[in-house]
TrEMBL record:
<feature type="domain" description="N-acetyltransferase">
    <location>
        <begin position="140"/>
        <end position="281"/>
    </location>
</feature>
<dbReference type="GO" id="GO:0016747">
    <property type="term" value="F:acyltransferase activity, transferring groups other than amino-acyl groups"/>
</dbReference>
<dbReference type="InterPro" id="IPR025289">
    <property type="entry name" value="DUF4081"/>
</dbReference>
<dbReference type="Pfam" id="PF13312">
    <property type="entry name" value="DUF4081"/>
</dbReference>
<dbReference type="InterPro" id="IPR016794">
    <property type="entry name" value="UCP21603_acetyltransf"/>
</dbReference>
<protein>
    <submittedName>
        <fullName>GNAT family N-acetyltransferase</fullName>
    </submittedName>
</protein>
<keyword id="KW-0012">Acyltransferase</keyword>
<dbReference type="InterPro" id="IPR016181">
    <property type="entry name" value="Acyl_CoA_acyltransferase"/>
</dbReference>
<keyword id="KW-0808">Transferase</keyword>
<dbReference type="InterPro" id="IPR050832">
    <property type="entry name" value="Bact_Acetyltransf"/>
</dbReference>
<dbReference type="Pfam" id="PF00583">
    <property type="entry name" value="Acetyltransf_1"/>
</dbReference>
<dbReference type="InterPro" id="IPR000182">
    <property type="entry name" value="GNAT_dom"/>
</dbReference>
Length: 281
């Protein structure tokens, strides 16, 4: 049933085609939401939450993924406020709000007085895409990882996550869950790394993917090996592997202040297509 004021309701499997048509208006920016919809058919038990839709004249005009990650989809400021007002009627379940700036900012403005102080807020993240071949030579040492790499790969994943997010993924008893996630990425063929004399010197993963796009996460070089060009050559290799095996468009988003990473991605050939924002609790 629609809420009277805002035309917002929980989407279900019967809405999948309409949802995909909406998200496909920007299939690269919306790759996470499309991936989630296709793998769960919008069933709440598989989503671990809900997908909300906002309707105008019976037409789905915006959506919002509401689970551990709260992600607005094709939402303008008015849509974001409508979703925020629905969110305020229930307990916060999201640990992260992430998406295009022009939706995340008005959503946060509406809920911030109730949801409390975030652990971190990053208001200027550059969403980058590459659709053609890399502009630098690929590192031939970058390859798909295997279960036999786990003893070297897992500590690097923990280190990267802790450096990027500010807390360890193992905090609060999360070790087994996070280790399972790393193994899952290996099994899918979504984990890439380079090893040098028994040391991991570069890694990256695919976070989510569709037939149109794949989003990269977890790009990391150990601090003592930075400045050697490992990131740019490694990312060129990842782009080659992903475009060959998974999807033609490769995307990621990077914090505005992370100038070394931004320079590396620019050298590879990534270009900015949107601005993201992330609020973390």
């Amino acid at each position: 049933m629609l809420t009277t004021r805002h035309g917002v309701r929980v989407l279900a499997a019967a809405d999948l085609d309409d949802f995909l048509a909406l998200a496909d208006q920007d299939p690269v920016v919306n790759v996470f939401a499309i991936h989630r919809a296709q793998t769960t058919s919008l069933e709440p038990r598989w989503l671990g939450g809900e997908m909300w839709g906002r309707f105008d004249g019976g037409v789905l005009v915006a959506a919002c993924h509401v689970a551990a990650n709260l992600v607005p989809i094709q939402a303008g400021p008015e849509d974001a406020v409508a979703f925020a007002e629905r969110a305020l009627a229930r307990r916060r379940t999201a640990s992260t709000i992430v998406g295009p700036q022009d939706a995340v900012q008005p959503f946060w403005d509406a809920v911030s007085g109730t949801w409390g102080q975030p652990r971190d807020a990053r208001w200027d993240q550059r969403h980058l895409v590459i659709e053609g071949p890399p502009q630098v030579d690929s590192d031939p040492g970058v390859r798909l990882t295997a279960r036999t790499d786990l003893d070297l790969l897992y500590p690097a994943c923990v280190a990267m996550y802790t450096e990027e997010v500010g807390v360890s993924p193992e905090a609060g008893g999360g070790t087994e869950l996070y280790r399972t996630r790393v193994v899952q990425l290996i099994s899918r063929g979504w984990s890439f790394a380079k090893f040098d004399r028994g040391e991991l010197v570069f890694k990256a993963e695919v976070a989510c993917a569709t037939r149109d796009a794949a989003q990269i996460q977890g790009v990391w070089v150990p601090p003592h090996r930075r400045g050697e060009g490992l990131a740019s050559a490694g990312m060129a290799a990842v782009v080659d592997l992903v475009q060959t095996r998974i999807a033609p468009s490769v995307s990621l988003y990077v914090n505005e202040w992370n100038e070394p990473a931004r320079r590396a991605y620019e050298r590879v050939g990534f270009r900015e297509t949107a601005r993201f924002a992330t609020v973390m609790f």
